[in-house]
Write a structure and sequence with these properties.
about 475 residues; 2 domains; 5-stranded mixed beta sheet; two-stranded antiparallel ribbon; globular
């Protein structure tokens, strides 16, 4: 059950003290120091404003007591995380400076700069993470959150990253324990979410593949039962094996993440924040997923032709096939029906993939049963990726708004727009000749509504989707 920050415990006296030193990261989550840190951070959230400050002077004494409990807990836990010693020392200093400065908007730039998890990508290594930050797909409040996390970095991933899929910023993690901000749908840890005085050059980004894998397993298991889909043997095996699913998502995500900065890019929507029609974000995210799919197909075909594969190459081969299943099923079963219908770009990407495969005759919804022609699926999925790549390549020579119009035509060539869509009817001259704001304002919140297939599936899947908020590996 989620704990609402507004109802978090405020009894500071119950968590004050100097806990014993913790020296083993493997058991840190069961230590007195971790419980003190977690309780103090959760209690502190009750007096923080959205920007992370503690605005009421009457709350400052309690906030100081809680910060002292956090700092003492961090110091007690530091010996268990020697690779994070510099960061944890800076964190204690940032907390003390925040309290001494009167609990204004927190500034944890120094400790953020000291935290460098991308330098310690060792399978099973743990980190203690404490920052005032918001959690994407969770809360926009910059509350103090605390986590114990564990690196997922098997040898075959290390070899992928050292070879053709280098991504020095990518960190794959497993959630061990966390404060309420992560008892949500959030599955990422990004430095830009931290409260700080200025924006540094970011050197890492982390994804919780255990959460992604756990919700995938729950959602796909339920959706395949509802749609009477007979899963291929390997795909079914992933639903019964959390570790297998986690490693599959690591392979998917490391290729996806690096794709945002590679290719013929007429724009870069996620690195340069700008307002544009949400279907542009749909195509960008889908492009990166389909690149992961395409590369997995290439890896699979290449390794199948080789003899005497190493153990790491055998794992790479096995996971390359699983990535293909994961991309398809996560996109069409979870992405398409998760979240609201207000400019849901991930949802639109899932709808687009489903309709593309259906219209090319490799996905079938017949006699209320879902089926795939698996031998033909890879080429059909790659063809959608090729169509998006072609759009991008051509749009390098187009004005921005002409690119937007071309992107819309690609999507509407597969999905049916809402009947009231101004874009579908054709934008009037005053919008076409005006500023880009007019184009974006004319896009409906649900420009491409759910099909009848998805309307029926969403109703049956709604409780399953809702149940994945805050999911842990052991819950799947």
């Amino acid at each position: 059950m989620s704990i609402s920050p507004t109802h978090a415990p405020r009894a500071a006296t119950a968590i004050v003290g100097e806990p014993e030193v913790v020296e083993d990261a493997a058991t840190a989550e069961s230590s007195v120091a971790w419980r003190q840190l977690k309780d103090a951070a959760t209690a502190l959230q009750a007096v923080q404003a959205q920007d992370g400050s503690v605005p009421e002077p009457s709350d400052h004494a309690e906030a100081r007591t809680l910060v002292e409990a956090i700092v003492s807990a961090i110091r007690a836990l530091t010996p268990a995380f020697p690779h994070d010693a510099e960061y944890l020392g800076a964190s204690a200093h940032d907390f003390a400076r925040w309290a001494d400065g009167g609990f204004g908007v927190p500034d944890f730039l120094d400790s953020l700069n000291a935290f460098q998890p991308q330098l310690h990508r060792v399978d099973g290594l743990r980190h203690l993470v404490v920052f005032p930050m918001y959690t994407q797909n969770g809360s926009r409040n910059r509350f103090v959150e605390a986590l114990i996390v564990e690196v997922i970095w098997p040898e075959f991933i290390a070899q992928l990253e050292a070879g053709d899929y280098g991504n020095k910023l990518f960190v794959s993690l497993r959630l061990v324990d966390f404060t309420p901000g992560y008892d949500t749908n959030s599955a990422v840890l990004f430095p830009e979410t931290v409260a700080m005085r200025e924006i540094p050059t970011f050197t890492w980004g982390a994804i919780f593949q255990d959460r992604e894998a756990a919700r995938y397993r729950r959602v796909v298991r339920a959706a395949s039962e509802i749609t009477k889909l007979e899963l291929p043997e390997d795909a079914a095996r992933m639903l019964d094996d959390q570790e297998l699913a986690e490693r599959t998502f690591v392979m998917w995500d490391i290729i996806h993440d690096r794709t945002h900065m590679r290719g013929d890019l007429p724009f870069d929507p996620f690195m340069i924040k700008q307002r544009m029609p949400y279907f542009l974000y749909s195509l960008e995210e889908l492009r990166c997923d389909l690149t992961a799919f395409r590369e997995s197909v290439a890896i699979q075909r290449r390794l199948r032709e080789q003899d005497d594969l190493t153990a790491a190459e055998q794992e790479m081969l096995a996971h390359a096939g699983l990535v293909q299943y994961a991309v398809i099923f996560d996109r069409i079963f979870r992405f398409a029906i998760t979240g609201s219908r207000v400019r849901n770009y991930d949802g639109l990407g899932g709808q687009l993939l489903f309709a593309w495969l259906h219209q090319r005759g490799v996905l079938h919804w017949t006699d209320t049963s879902l089926a795939f022609d698996w031998a033909d699926v890879p080429d059909a999925v790659v063809a959608l990726g090729d169509a998006i790549d072609e759009l991008y390549w051509r749009s390098i020579d187009r004005p921005k708004t002409a690119h937007w119009l071309a992107a819309y035509e690609l999507v509407r060539g597969v999905l049916t727009p809402a009947p009231a869509s101004a874009w579908a009817r054709g934008l009037p001259d005053e919008i076409l000749a005006g500023p880009t704001k007019g184009y974006t304002d004319a896009v409906l919140d649900d420009e491409f509504p759910l099909s009848m297939f998805y309307e029926a599936l969403e109703k049956k899947m709604r409780p399953v989707i809702a149940s994945t908020a805050g999911i842990r590996a052991e819950d799947a």
